[in-house]
Amino acid sequence: MARVADGFHTENRFRIECRSDLCLMSGDDTIAATQESMIRMVLPPQLWLQRPGDPVMAFRGPFFKPTTWLSTLSVESTEKRLQQFRKVLHDNPDAEHLDTKDTILNMRSVGNTRSQIILHELAHTAHVSKPVMEILKPNAMTESITLDHAYEANSCFWTAQGVFDSKTRKVPDPLAGAKLAAENAESWGLVAMGIYMSSRLQIQQIPIPGVPNYAWAHTDKVKKPV
User: Fold this and answer.
1) pLDDT in tens, 205-217
2) Domain count, the chain
């Protein structure tokens, strides 16, 4: 993913374009989409009868212009989102541990940044997803790509925990959840952006709305309440 985002796509003929038509083909509310030839996605290179169409990542208007008054839900530039987060931290040094209803500093806001959406779409390309899918499905007859099992941080968290329907709500299936999370494009984008944002902000953790920090902390600095 990093290689493609860093310019490798110019050698692989991968294009990023503003194409409303490709987005609308996926649905009226789609603001970003990745289109790749079915030949490239399904058949191994040795079976290509002709060179498949170049993969294209397409965007439309709302990706570039926020359209909702609620800033946590609108798509913002990464730099503007960082500015919003820094203001929260400046106004309240303990904002990292606040209830997420009280601050924009949360993973939902991270998910609604342009960089995260780009990373999500990159995760759908065969070039990026191939190493992951080869581990998850080593005996697959055709080349698989990442899917959209879950969107937004809260859904991605519970999917990874193995809670994704009424049955697993009572008895989670963590192994199945881990596999679904590894196949999920949104999970890759959120993890990458969460690491980047927390590093830039110099904080341990960015809260997930509806999930207590201690439920997913990997540090002894975030402890369960007594």
Assistant:
1) 888 988 887 777 6
2) 1
User: Which residues form the domain of 155?
Assistant: 2-215
Task: Evaluate if pTM is beyond 0.85.
Answer: no
With respect to residue 43, please indicate whether it lies within any of the assigned structural domains. yes
Residue 222 lies in a domain: no
d(CA 71, CA 64): 14
Q: 185 to each of 2, 132, 155, 161, how far by Cα in Å?
A: 14, 11, 13, 16
Assigned token pair, 88: 């929260």
What's the pLDDT at 130?
Answer: 74
In a domain, 226, yes or no: no
CA separation (Å) from 75 to 47, 62, 189, 192? 40, 8, 14, 17
| 85 in a structural domain | yes
pLDDT digits (tens, 9 = 90+) for 156-175: 999 999 987 777 778 888 89
Q: Are strands 15-18 and 56-59 parallel, antiparallel or unpaired?
A: parallel
Q: Which residue from 61, 67, 216, 155 is spatially nearest to 163, judged by alpha carbons?
A: 155
DSSP string, 88-114: HHHH-TTGGGS-GGG-S-SHHHHHTBH
